[in-house]
């Protein structure tokens, strides 16, 4: 199994509940296909560098997971079919990126505790 990281941007016209529902939908898609979710971060509403579909802000979400390579295609098909998703990118992490991601997760967890 490989380790992946995907960041997707949801349209800013969604309510908080709709945004959380969309994130849960993609998490369920991954777990139903045998992926193990390592980390989930919701970065909130952020201003984008340039307008996409005439929108200058969006809800940013990050999912870090371990899965077989075939699941990535299924996930990206789900992103393309969902009109709430403006942009997405999925990256396979090499061993150095995976180590960095683990450090970042631990640092983020310590902030949450404080």
TrEMBL record:
| GO CC aspect terms | cytoplasm; ribonucleoprotein complex; ribosome
State whether keyword Plastid applies. no
**Record-level Gene Ontology MF annotations:** small ribosomal subunit rRNA binding; structural constituent of ribosome
Q: Recite the UniProt keywords alphabetically.
A: Ribonucleoprotein, Ribosomal protein, RNA-binding, rRNA-binding
| BP GO annotations | translation
Which NCBIfam families did the record assign? S6
Which HAMAP family does the entry mention? Ribosomal_bS6 (MF_00360)
Q: Give the similarity note.
A: Belongs to the bacterial ribosomal protein bS6 family.
Function of the protein: Binds together with bS18 to 16S ribosomal RNA.
The protein in question is named Small ribosomal subunit protein bS6
């Amino acid at each position: 199994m490989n380790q992946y990281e995907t960041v997707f941007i949801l349209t800013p016209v969604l309510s908080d509940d709709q945004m959380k529902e969309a994130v849960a939908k993609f998490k369920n898609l991954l777990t139903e296909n045998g992926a193990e979710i390592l980390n989930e971060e919701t970065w909130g509403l952020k201003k984008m560098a340039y307008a996409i579909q005439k929108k200058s802000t969006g809800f940013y979400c990050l999912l870090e997971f371990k899965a077989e390579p075939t699941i990535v295609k299924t996930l990206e098909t789900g992103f393309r079919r969902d009109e709430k998703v403006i942009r997405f990118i999925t990256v396979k992490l090499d061993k150095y990126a995976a180590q960095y991601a683990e450090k970042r997760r631990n640092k983020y967890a310590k902030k949450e505790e404080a």
